Amino acid sequence: MSIYPRPVEELIDCFARLPGIGRKGAARLVFHLLGRSDEDIRVFAETMIAAREQTVFCRDCQNLSELERCPLCENTGRDHTLLCVVAEPRDVAAIERCREYKGLYHVLHGVISPTRQKSPDDIRLKELLERVGGGGFAEVILATNPDTDGDTTALYIARMLRPFEVKVTRLAYGLPMGGHVEHADELTIMRALDGRREV
Amino acid sequence: MSIYPRPVEELIDCFARLPGIGRKGAARLVFHLLGRSDEDIRVFAETMIAAREQTVFCRDCQNLSELERCPLCENTGRDHTLLCVVAEPRDVAAIERCREYKGLYHVLHGVISPTRQKSPDDIRLKELLERVGGGGFAEVILATNPDTDGDTTALYIARMLRPFEVKVTRLAYGLPMGGHVEHADELTIMRALDGRREV
User: Fold this and answer.
1) Tell me, what's the ipTM?
2) Chain A residues touching residue B18 (CB < 8 angstroms)
């Protein structure tokens, strides 16, 4: 016999399938939710459906968008000759938060990963190729994460874009601002040494 | 300008309002969800509505139930002279998991807490009074958490039940101080049941 009513168990299951949430954590979330108003719960459920139904992938940058073409791609105030390639929509958000970059984006929705069985066909590389092939870009900045899969993906894209007359760069990797050499891992220190600059 | 489409931002807000989930964590959950199938998302949303609409509070024990009277209260194989008073439905689940206790339950849905402005009227004490007043119980076991609010609530209930001919006991402090019934292991709960004392 299950301890909770069936619909409650099922909702716990739904939450427990989310990444980083165990069954006890899921139960805690569900009981918190059940302590809310009917209206609150209805809004949550409807928002979940809306987030899927009312968002598409921008036809240019592949980022999540309410419109066929997202506001970033539509913005004529941005530099349309600069293209920053990222793995996920949240990477766009992180870069936008620093208010430094004024070019466009391309969201891959994943990285090439032999260990997680993600091949180049599983991410939005075809769309990137078409876009860069269409011309108009002076520079493509590869902003995948500095880990094995991110490096593999960046290398793959750099090779893929070699036939085009476009500069391909990669984000600098080194010690994070405010970080300590003492606490940095070996790989970060190696990257920081490799990328050292004359002062 | 918000970085994500409005419905996605709204869904992140919904998740971020859950306890223990920050905005970054919420965004991670939402992007995971948006990577699932339409069907998966629809089921999650519908289950959320169902968990509210298809559950009531058992008319006797006040636990969440699909029926007017829950399976535990309906079960004639259990000891209907023993009543265990807990704060939350998840405490019932924790005690049931140790398969030691065969009596009934009463779920308060909270504890008396001056710091969190929870008065005796905010939890299901009236229902407990009516139930014990109705007779038939030989013993009431107070199984609130061994913390300030749990102790206050247990003491309040012990006093409230003094006019009745019923033995009132409290779980033994086999539970670590400051701990939660929900997270206790089966052995600790069994020790606490065995060592219960009259108050």
Assistant:
1) 0.75
2) 29, 32-33
